[in-house]
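Task: fold both queries, return tokens.
Query 1:
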Amino acid sequence: MRLKLALVWLAIFTIAANAEPVAISASPLNRFGSLSGTKFDWRGGLVIESADKTFGGLSGLALSEDCTGLLAVSDAGRWFRASLQYEKGNLANISEAELAPMLDGAGKPPKSKRRGDAEAVANLGSGRYMVGFESRTRIGIYDIGTAGLNARFQLLKSPKVIADGPSNGEVESVGQFKAGPWQGHYLAISEHNLDGDGNIRGWLWQSSRTVPFAIKRLEDYSITDAAILPGGDVIILERSFGTSLLPGMAIRRIEASAIKKGGTVEPELLFAGRALFYAIDNMEGIALCEREGETRLAIVSDDNFNLRQRTLLLQFSYEP
């Protein structure tokens, strides 16, 4: 009898762990707002909706190299995977959407939102993805190329100091440098872990070597994600989001050569804007890819599972 119950439990768990299709609708965003004076051009956007209550909370974004495959993580501990379609070079639709729980090292889904609070994902290549969790701070690798969305969490050794920030304000951005002066190093950036001057802490590391640094905090913006350009410079996404202000978004660039151990970098402002003037919500995830000879930058918003917020997927071309 115990064996039968164990087999039944295993079957139920296996079904729950597999990716499940999710019905979504995507309405086109025909206009983002003025990009005059920036290095960006609008390449289309979508408002994504679903009646499935498990969809939402998208906090980290990764794209395939050709911009057609999307993989996002939810702060409720779920994967969201889909395919992107284009018309006349612009983002036009999303299809083949599916959701799956993010499994731990034992192959189990998160027991609580705190355990599943995924905030960042980065495509490392060869089907491997780096994911940062915030509330119970940890960073790990998922080999999706081998196991699909049933991949298990593999702990990536990272500096212990990353977990020293305030609750719900720790790791928000992760990645790995593939070129430039920090080639091979991993990257993590916090949200509200500030140094004595009020600047945002970040870390590079490789094996036992750790390079702590800080990013100058500007106005009321907080860093919510980062993407690393092929040459090694870092694009950071920042958001301003609260009850007293309209939602804001800023995009800045950090030169890799400006990052020094113990130093503070002041990133170059590429764009800043707020809702009403721009199609902006609670912007949380950023990713880079290449399409039609252009560097494309995609940004996704976290709707916080709130009916008054939206899941936006925006795409721009960027001239580095």
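Query 1 returned. Query 2:
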Amino acid sequence: MSAIWGIIATPLGFIMRWCYLLVNDLLHLPVSYVFALFLFTLLTKVLLFPLSLKQQRSSAVMQAYQPLINEINQKYADNPKKKQEEMTKFQNEYGYSPMSGCLPLLIQFPIIFGLIEVVYKPLTYMLRIPKEIVEVLNSEASQLAGLEKNSRYIETKVIELIKNSSGRFLSLDASSSGFSRTEFAGYVSRIENLNMSIGGIDLWETPSLKWSIMLLIPIFSISTIIISSLITQWATRGHAEKNKQMQTTNIIMIAFSTIMFGFMSFTLPAAFGLYWGFSNIVLIGQSIILRKIVNADTVRKQAEEKIAEKKKQQKESKTVKVKDKTGKLENKELSADELARYRLQKARELDDKRYAMPEDNDEE
């Protein structure tokens, strides 16, 4: 699994590197890593904006489709197989996909875990230190700190040790890395100048419930989750929506996301909590923009008109030739629903004949 996150971390580390170079080397901003993290968050949100726009439309359409979905669930509550058939038929007829609104959230998870790799391994993914030099530095840090060389914390420990005693690392024999002493010293200097701290907090450390200044980061993350979730629900909700079930579902989703990401804020590096807090802040602005672009009431009414037209077509009868009980063809008036059921029945009969087990004719 680590190899998969490493593949994702490679492009994310490249983006984070250029964000850091911009704010640190060009703009010379204080707490440059924090500003770089915010810029990284902003860029990823911009790249995902088309998917967010699609999610906004899907949420509005869902308001129109929800009564039909509830009707199917209630009507076939005791027949799961039939309910699944009707739900599939409904999705095919109306072009509705229950997963269409989930894609932006699903994409967030690879970004989150890829970013965590970047946070834990900044030498590899962000500073782009050659692998051979990283191995030399990790070997020395593992002896000093008592960590395994392949520990996920080893690179951040290298940073900590170099900042406390860069001379010890500069005196290392780097001949095995294939780089000259001058080149090796240049890479050590780059590591020493990397600042991944804010107010004395090392952002690769994990927050705890014990009171400290670091506790403010998960509090920031959790509070912005709640605020952004409420604003997002407001942005995707039409003015005419009074569906109590939808409102209850929204409340459950807000509670679930708050608990899940709140838990992650206390079990992952502090940099994740900052990233998620920044992400929620950007999401607030994005939700306001999306509400102006996508009018939930207009989209919902268009979906309702589509549903009404579809129902009208289903009620219209059509003359088709069907077989009676004797096998004789006769003309019969069938509605669209009846025709669909007839075709489904014939398809099942054909399947039964096609996959029927051959009788055992080997008996003597």
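Both queries returned. Flag for query 2: Confidence is low (pLDDT under 50) at residues 360-364.
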